Amino acid sequence: MRLRNSRDFIAGSLFALFGFSVFTYAQRYDIGTADEMGPGYFPAMLGLLLAILGVTIGLRAFSRAAPVQRVRPPVWYPLLLILGSVAAFAFALPVLGYPIALLFLIVGSALGGDEFSWPEVLLAYAVLLAVSYLVFIRGLGLPLQVWPAFMHH
Fold first, then answer.
1. pTM of the complete model
2. Which of 96, 114, 119, 132 is the most buried (most CB within 10 A)?
3. CA 121, CA 105: separation in Å to the nearest integer?
């Protein structure tokens, strides 16, 4: 048996690890039966299915029919830019408010992509701002800082 597809092997291993972890953690709750499901039933079954899927994908990576694929090293700049924009959102939200923090998130994430267009980014920002404001702040009543902190004093 020779590993032919390292991408599938790594993906399958991560799926299996996460699935088995969820399955194991769900054992802390009452599982119940299929007729009378307890609070741990759904997470346990979902974790088990994910683990089975992961093992299947991981084993398929050794098949002669599997395409030969290797994992390429990560491209750090986009990854760090996107993670940085999420961090900027988190730090800016309580100080600068939701609209400005969301602008940091959208622009920073878009800069991490292959194609950047100011009109598309601003349109995405406007749509996401309107929809997320209506859903999260108005609809669900989440206590998000809408206006900058200095405007409250």
1. 0.56
2. 96
3. 11
